[in-house]
Amino acid sequence: MGAVTPLGSDVRAFLEGLLAGRSAVRFMEGWDRYRGLRSLVGAPAELREATAIPRKDRRSMGRMSLFAAQAAKQAVLDAGLSENELGSGRTGCVIGSTMGSACSINETFETMLPERDLSNLTAMQFFKCVSHSAAMNVAQYLNIAGVVMAPSAACASGLQAIGTGYDLIRLGRQEIVVCGGAEELHPTVTGSFDILFATSARYNDVPERTPRPFDRDRDGLVCGEGSGIVVLEEYERARRRNARMRVEVVGYHTCASGSHVSQSNHASMIACMREALGQAGVAPGEIDYINAHATGTEHGDAEETIAIREVFGGAVPVSSMKGALGHTLGASGCIEIIGSVGMMEKGVLFPTRNLENVAPNCAGILHVREPLERQIRLFLKNSFAFGGINAALVCRAV
After folding, report:
1. Assuming Cys at both sites, which of 141, 196, 284, 305 could form a disulfide with 362, CB separation 3.0 to 4.6 Å?
2. Same structural domain for residues 29 and 167?
3. One domain for residues 228 and 333
4. Is 327 a catalytic site residue?
5. CATH number, domain with residue 19
6. Non-local CB neighbours of 312 within 8 Å, separated by 6+ positions
7. 3-state DSSP assignment of residue 93
């Protein structure tokens, strides 16, 4: 596993931040110069030692791809993969994001549009902006010669990437897949949610109090940035080389609601979770923990609550990491999977930060309100995105 998050630049710092109950949300200096932007808070990640990446690889990377490259390097080292394995053609790379580098896209138009002069753009700018920028750049950086794919399904991208890696291995197309998600923070990203009234705007003066998943006083999401990358490997291959195995992916499903472009739909969430459980051969009562998507929006949290209550009742512990991390969008699914694996290894469930008063429309499920010692054998992770796109992944302790 590898992670660069708003709570720290590696997996250990990330998990320590979660356990300590820290908030990564900050007032974003300079954002108030954007007219019409109501939400002035974000969860930035620190970009450290980017120059450790060789210039020949770094020059085509925007901020998002730099995060992904750093997290991928951590994951590959953690997995003990050799250069020969990475370049064998049997190792793939699947990394999702909402779009290309938001900062680079903005820079491109600011450079070009005043005089409509393309000659001022650098040769590498295009590679920072393309939608598969993170996957492409990581594959180049690590000399990965297998399948390269880039799911682009907003908030479901990271979980779809893991699910795609799982399918590639199940189908025999690859033996190893470096997969996950990446995202970067920019006013235009927050603004895209802001114009839909989906962002938190009441807590600009007290940023640590937002977002508030499942809470009575929630008022929307807070955008964050970073990258989460995991290495998936075919079980028998991993066993033969005595690899450190943390969890086994046993079930995955993704589906659409087909009903509304921006409003979550509990019926399709129910279908997604049930199919993932069915693929895993697991009954709802066997799940020990649910890591919710729960971003802090009024409608989304309520719909996910209905879905969880319908499938699992009120006995399975549920929490969201977004009260601490903000919503890292295309990176969130993988970052939060890593957080869930950390909980499994520590035997402690991390609570939902800022959940002080459970909203009436979020009642009826077992919210984790304080650190809870609990053995986790099986957990389910949800990710739900604009466009009615749902994803759910089931993992079992090895």
Report:
1. 305
2. yes
3. no
4. yes
5. 3.40.47.10
6. 284, 285, 287, 290, 365
7. strand
The whole-angstrom separation of Cα 5 and Cα 227 is 6
Q: Identify the sign of the CA torsion 303, 188, 387, 132.
A: negative
Model's pTM, two decimal places? 0.97
Catalytic site residue from 93, 155, 179, 272: 155
Do 21 and 67 belong to one domain? yes
Catalytic residue among 179, 327, 334, 367: 327
> CA-CA distance, 361 to 242, in Å (whole number)?
47
Pair of tokens at residue 228: 């989460």
Q: Are residues 256 and 218 in the same domain?
A: no
Residue where a domain stops, chosen among 222, 240, 258:
240
Q: Which amino acid is at 324?
A: A
Q: Give the C-alpha separation, 27 to 271, whole Å.
A: 38
CA dist 46 and 53 (Å) reads: 16
Block mean pLDDT (10 aa), the chain, length 398 = 98 97 98 96 97 96 98 98 97 97 94 90 93 98 98 96 98 98 97 95 98 98 98 97 96 94 92 98 98 98 98 98 98 98 97 98 98 97 95 97
Residue where a domain terminates, one of 192, 217, 240 = 240
DSSP state letter for 59: T
Whether residue 253 lies in the annotated active site = no
Enter the tokens of residue 328.
Answer: 């890292």
**DSSP structural state of residue 350:** P
Q: Could you tell me which residues come within 8 angstroms of residue 85 by beta carbon, excluding any fewer than 6 positions away?
A: 91, 176
Active site residue 155: yes
Q: Which residues, 6 or more positions from 292, have their beta carbon under 8 angstroms from its beta carbon?
A: 213, 214, 304, 308, 318, 319, 320, 382
**ω before 211 within 30° of 0 (cis)?**
yes
Query: Residue 150's CB: how many other CB atoms inside 10 A?
Result: 24
